[in-house]
Amino acid sequence: MVMLKQSYRYDQTTARLEVEGLPDYSAGHAEQAIGILSTWRLKIVGASELEGKREHLEALMQVVIPYVRLRLSGVVRSLGALHDPVRLVPDGAQHRLDLTSGQPDIPPLSIHLDDAQLADLVRCLDALRSDGRVCLAWPSIQHEPLHRRDLVERIPLTQRLTAPLLGGATVVVLGVLGILLPLPQIQPPSPAQAPEVKTETPISDPAQPDEER
Amino acid sequence: MTDVTAEAAPDPSIPEAVLGRRALERLDLLLLTVESLDLNGGEAMLWATRQLGFETIFPNRVELWKRRCHNPLRRSTRRGQLSAVETEALIRILCMMADRLYPMLHQLLSSKEPSELTRQRWELVHQRLRDLIEERMNLRRGAIQRFLGSEPEGPLQRQLVLTLALAAGPGGVDRLRASLLDPTP
Q1: How many domains is chain A partitioned into structurally?
Q2: Which chain B residue is nearest to residue A149, measuring alpha carbons?
């Protein structure tokens, strides 16, 4: 049986993603399908062409797609650790894609993307993931609502601190005012006006036994 | 343009997305941004409704308008919440419209375009969005006044256009739904 290499391309204005591979006949794939990915190439306008193995492409997906999800909620935060193969970092109005090779002789590469390029890149990745001809089990990426603490970060610190600081200052000011207010002078009662205390002898001492009364 | 019609069938795995007040405001504002980008946006939305098979939910323009009026910032607002099916339909219509308008969104967001041209494009979009807001929204609301007082390429407008660009395409539906379901901080 002749194994024909398949190649599919996903084009956007500033990005082109190309995947090459073979159908996995043992899994019952058709001739047009890709079941074994041999290589992929990503060309972003103004940057070097990237290529790698399947795990590199998966790492790219696992960083870019969740990063875009965060941006949709207005959260600006980097994704990926410092020495991870792929890292996406906010860089002013742009986004910096840091790529670290597993081979020691290849220096790390940084690509600056503007918002339009980021959107193009994620559309290429979306198109690949949803392409029925590419029969690969891509890593699952679940989009969930963010936690409240994640969303709080998008509010500037000064705005976040205004309410508690104002509340604290109000309590302090009211406390100081309370201390400064003079206490009312209590006039001791004069002897002439003192109420007459009647001392009546009890009819019987309550402690006395009943027989002695 | 990416075909999203294949995803139109109701998916039982989709979570029951009932939107809160802020999310309704945001969803309607995104639809309004689409209308400001596409002069024939109202007709295009009806076309998208038919393409996605949502005629039973929004059989005509009035029904679509009535659902959008759940936005509390509207001049003639409706009480209550959108059902999960209506919410899902509106999100899918929005993503399809964003996909259709993607080249325009790309031009607005690109830093490679000539800056003067980009500025003029933003001004046009901003002016059309202002007109639509003044026509349909309650101008006494603080959020609307803040929006009307903002710059053409200010963060608010840019976030709306960026949201449309990042929500366009096959993966955009899930992303946008999740972001609309975010809790209010």
Answers
A1: 1
A2: B185
- What does the pLDDT read at residue B17? 75
* CA-based nearest residue in chain B for residue A112: B111
Report the amino acid identity of residue B179. S
Window from A47-56, A60-69, A110-119 with minimum mean pLDDT: A47-56
User: Would you list the domain boundaries of chain B?
Assistant: 17-173
Range of the domain at A59: 6-142
Q: Which residues of A touch B111 (CB under 8 A)?
A: 93-94, 114-116
Exposure string of A42-75, with b = 16+ CB inside 10 Å and e = fewer, is bbbeebeebebebebbbbbbbbbbbbbbbbbbbb
Q: How many CB atoms lie within 10 A of CB B66?
A: 14
**CB contact set of A114 (below 8 Å; sequence gap of 6+):** A93, A94, A95, B109, B110, B111, B112
| A24/A37 Cα distance (integer angstroms) | 10
In a domain, A12, yes or no: yes
CB contact under 8 A, B165 and A115: yes
User: For residue B157, what are its two tokens?
Assistant: 């407008």
Residue pair A118/A57 in contact (Cβ under 8 Å)? The answer is: no
Residue B9 pLDDT > 60? no
Other CB atoms closer than 10 Å to residue A166's CB: what's the count?
Answer: 10
A145 touches chain B (CB under 8 A): yes
Domain of residue A44, CATH code: 2.30.31.10
Task: Give this prediction's pTM.
Answer: 0.82
Instruction: Reply yes or no on whether the pLDDT at B15 is more than 70.
Output: no
B69 to chain A, any CB pair closer than 8 A? The answer is: no
Residue A177 in any domain: the answer is no
Beta bridge partners of A113: A95
User: What's phi and psi for A99, nearest 5 deg?
Assistant: -120, 125
B109 touches chain A (CB under 8 A): yes
Share of chain A above pLDDT 70, in %: 87
What is the per-residue pLDDT for A173?
94
* Residue A80 distance to chain B (closest CA, Å): 19
